[in-house]
Amino acid sequence: MTENEAITTVGADELELINSYSRKALTADGVYTFSVVLCDNDVDRDNEHFSDEALEKLAELYVGVTGIYDHNPSAKNQVARIYSAKVESVPGRQTQYGTQYRRVVAKAYIPRCRSSEELIDMLDSGIKKEVSVGCGIAKCTCSICGEDMRTHACAHEKGKLYDGRLCCGVLDEPTDAYEWSFIAVPSQRSAGVIKSFLSEYRAPGKSFEDGETLSKSDIDTLKDYISSLKQRAEEGEKYRSSLRLETVKAGITAKVGIESSLLETMVSALSVDELLRLKSGFEKTAESLLPIRPQTISPSELGESLAPDSLGVFRI
Known about the structure:
By secondary structure, the chain is an alpha+beta fold. It has helices spanning 12-19, 52-61, 117-124, 216-253, 260-268, 272-289, and strands at 31-40, 48-50, 66-69, 80-94, 100-111, 131-142, 161-162, 165-166, 169-182, 192-194. The strands form 2 sheets. Strands 1, 2, 3, 4, 5, 6, 9 and 10 form an 8-stranded mixed sheet that branches. Strands 7-8 form a two-stranded antiparallel ribbon. The chain is elongated. Mean pLDDT is 81; it is low at 1-8 and 196-212.
């Protein structure tokens, strides 16, 4: 089986599901079936992502929904229908913000007839691959402050970093799933037709079986994915480098009694989470040693005595 082949045999259980949408009894030889990633929980080209809860709901809503071309809601554009869908995790793959990557994978069918031959050939050759979903979403919240970005204005802009965190819109509470479309450039980079029995991305250490190949579309998708990983790695390393410097400064201010060069060596191996915790501890120690004291504060407010003729504390 090559990378672009879809499901070649239809089991009795699947055929029963398919026939629940057909007026006549279809046979296994009379339908073409394939697997398709509808959407996932990673950040898309619009700097938005579905929540895990939204994916579960969308998997339910998309069962029975028709597939069309280019989001054009015309009856003549109906070409396929989903007969089952589920949410699955891809081992070893994480989202741009460091969580487990999850996606909605659906199974769809096309009746084998003269008018569908061209589409089936396009699917098998990998030309028709990318898809995009049309659905209703009740909430889009800011990943930084949690405000609903549609009803409340917040100070954060999608696509920008705030203290090392990427701001994006979190799509939640799906209300409807009305179509999915074959398009050239989907908002979600990984949405599209996939093989049914192998993951779109192999687990680390596994190689392709003899005879398996990648289509140009698959290679382009993989290049985009690798490019996004490189960009995230560069951004993450910049943040980690800045955090190491801040931690060393905090340690010096806290007078921990360790030379700066040794302190730099010690923090170089720490993770971001460990650096944040250590920096916080240093800052608390420094605050107890050197409490913040405004220049014009009265000594009496600090519990200190003030000589009658001493006004020096109020001079700036």
